[in-house]
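Private note to self, pasted from the team thread so I don't lose it. Backbone tokens:
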């Protein structure tokens, strides 16, 4: 059913209402594309969406629960009932449930949440305050720390999750004109606000769009970024996305665009004229082939399934590979540590990811010197993989962390920042090194991560990084970095030190600050509306050293006071606004300025004045409850000759007044 609020929460397995979902294993030992053996790992699940191997068992996302089925002897038979780790994943809409479990290179278990469900996630049966959410997002969970958090929010109807060879996070979209959303840590992305609700932070004051792409039909939920060696090298780094409405797998190339990417379609890996062909998932296997799950249904929309229009026997899986295919993959039965270290430099990402996961489970401390050597000497992906493996065996020391901030590979620097700041507590040495790096870092993606990570730190550490980042004037043109910096600043807005840096003339005159942050910090304090924050608004206006800065501050103030009266402002702020020139005509009108009221009273009845302005003035005067406005508004409202926009504004404005004439 669609968007249903249930009156009960189902119990977790094995006490649940049994369903028809199962996790089964099909093994093709000779590599001819036909499986020889088949067994069921677990069945009777209900609304199971995904699973991931790890920690001597299988993690299963079965909303509203995250389950762990132990299999310590690895015989593909659960050792017992599942352990329930998390509860509270929403069930309101069965086509946008939490989904797509996969391990991140940081040792966290990542997943997506769709657009029309909520979340109240916490440890199972714990007294913890749940992490609440509404709509699409990417989340992660650390099994050992029992820690759940929202990684980033927004996006499309997030169903599918891809992590590329540099550890970047993506999910698809169920709309057109893009192939993916690229999620930075702690970011806010576009969503269908009217349908799916607003962002959780009312002071976000912006959001990141989907990756740029030419016009294309909907939709692309799941995709992979190819990183293996079976296909020719021209396939490496290409994005392959499923399009179930069109029955095809699209091939796209990705190109850097500042701190993110844009994409462009190049052709098709797979197309079918069969109208029942519905590719819904895509993965790259250990052999480097691309695997596609075909739902194979007459219809793909979720509306018909509860009516019984489901063909349970017609689904299928395709394997796509070059004609000159290599021999079938053979994985050694005894994967000793030396093999896993070699796999960190394997051309197929599956091997590298598997090696990092298994090294995390084995915790071989004797390999730390080997991994450190690889980390400092390698210049390809092996250095990054060594960092990920090393971090999961032993946390980075201050000495290692500081040395890696100078690593020649920017992605090693980027991930060193992220891993250090994920602790949320820095030593003074690390804090100083990050502040210095923020001022001097040449790579735009590393600077973006510094902004993301600064948000997770205390105020002093955060602002030290911000003060370094704003000196990169070219970043004012980037589509993401100014907002990432703003979100870091906004998280510390209540601390007096945040106001103080904006009153510093050197900080305020930086292009990133003047073009993107002055407006937002004023709007943040003005929208809060507390006396403390309104006095902060006055301090900002008084500190402005240039007319351009004053205009930015006043613009932010006006944005915050749309639909609100200015008549109850602290005298200090009213004086600061007057001393700064009073702002726009509309701002003076909101203050109840007599000259402005006289002009507006004349203008609202003047057909020569722009209709949009007349409507805005009517709205402001109704918010002020200006009594002389009743007669002209009534005249405008009842006249068929009034422009429709003005007439509607007059009808709405009259609702603010008590009058027998109305």
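Design output:
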């Amino acid at each position: 059913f669609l968007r249903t609020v249930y009156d009960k929460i189902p119990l977790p397995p094995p006490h649940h209402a049994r369903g028809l979902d199962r996790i089964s294993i099909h093994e093709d030992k000779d590599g001819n594309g036909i499986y020889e053996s088949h067994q069921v790992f677990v069945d009777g699940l209900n609304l199971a969406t995904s699973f991931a191997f790890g920690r001597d068992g299988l993690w299963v996302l079965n909303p509203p629960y995250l389950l762990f089925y132990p299999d310590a002897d690895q015989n593909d038979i659960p050792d017992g009932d599942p352990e329930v780790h998390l509860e509270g994943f929403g069930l309101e809409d069965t086509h946008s449930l939490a989904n797509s479990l996969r391990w991140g290179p940081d040792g966290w278990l990542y997943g997506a949440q769709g657009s029309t469900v909520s979340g109240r996630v916490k440890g199972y049966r714990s007294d913890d305050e749940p992490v609440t959410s509404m709509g699409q997002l990417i989340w992660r969970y650390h099994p050992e720390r029992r820690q759940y958090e929202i990684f980033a929010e927004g996006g499309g109807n997030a169903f599918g999750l891809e992590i590329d060879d540099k550890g970047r996070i993506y999910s698809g979209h169920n709309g057109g004109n893009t192939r993916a959303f690229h999620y930075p840590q702690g970011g806010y992305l576009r969503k269908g606000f009217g349908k799916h609700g607003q962002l959780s932070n009312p002071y976000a004051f912006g959001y990141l769009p989907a990756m740029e792409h030419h016009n294309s039909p909907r939709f692309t939920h799941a995709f992979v970024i190819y990183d293996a060696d079976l296909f020719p090298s021209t396939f490496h780094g290409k994005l392959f996305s499923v399009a179930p409405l069109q029955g095809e797998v699209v091939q796209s190339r990705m190109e850097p665009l500042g701190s993110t990417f844009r994409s462009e379609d190049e052709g098709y890996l797979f197309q079918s004229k069969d109208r029942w062909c519905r590719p819904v998932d895509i993965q790259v296997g250990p052999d480097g082939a691309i695997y596609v799950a075909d739902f194979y249904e007459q219809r793909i929309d979720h509306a018909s399934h509860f009516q019984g229009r489901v063909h349970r026997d017609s689904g299928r899986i395709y394997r796509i590979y070059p004609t000159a295919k290599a021999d079938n993959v053979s994985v050694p039965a005894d994967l000793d540590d030396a093999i896993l270290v070699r796999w960190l430099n394997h051309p197929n990402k599956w091997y590298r990811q598997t090696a990092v996961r298994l090294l995390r489970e084995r915790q071989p401390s004797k390999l730390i010197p080997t991994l450190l050597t690889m980390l400092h000497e390698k210049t390809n992906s092996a250095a990054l993989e060594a960092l990920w493996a090393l971090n999961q065996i032993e946390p980075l020391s201050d000495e290692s962390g500081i040395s890696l901030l100078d690593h020649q590979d920017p992605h090693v620097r980027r991930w060193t920042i992220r891993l250090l700041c994920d602790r949320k507590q820095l030593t003074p040495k690390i804090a100083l090194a990050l502040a210095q790096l923020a001022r001097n870092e040449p790579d735009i993606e590393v600077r973006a991560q510094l902004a993301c990570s600064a948000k997770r730190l205390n105020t002093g550490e955060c602002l030290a990084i911000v003060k370094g980042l704003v000196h990169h004037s070219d970043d004012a043109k980037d589509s993401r970095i100014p907002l990432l910096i703003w979100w870091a600043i906004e998280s510390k807005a209540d601390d007096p030190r945040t106001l103080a840096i904006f009153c510093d003339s050197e900080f305020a005159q930086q292009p990133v600050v003047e073009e993107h942050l002055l407006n937002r910090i004023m709007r943040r304090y003005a929208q809060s509306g507390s006396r403390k924050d309104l006095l902060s608004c006055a301090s900002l206006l008084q500190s402005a050293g240039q007319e351009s800065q004053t205009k930015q501050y006043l613009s932010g103030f006006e944005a915050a006071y749309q639909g609100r009266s200015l008549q109850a402002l602290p005298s200090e702020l009213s004086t600061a606004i007057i001393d700064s020139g009073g702002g726009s005509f509309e701002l003076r009108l909101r203050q109840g300025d007599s000259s402005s009221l006289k002009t507006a009273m004349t203008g609202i009845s003047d057909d020569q004045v722009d209709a949009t302005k007349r409507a805005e003035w009517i709205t402001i005067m109704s918010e002020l409850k200006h009594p002389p406005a009743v007669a002209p508004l009534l005249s405008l409202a009842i006249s068929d000759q009034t422009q429709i926009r003005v007439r509607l504004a007059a009808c709405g404005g009259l609702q603010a007044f008590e009058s027998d004439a109305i």
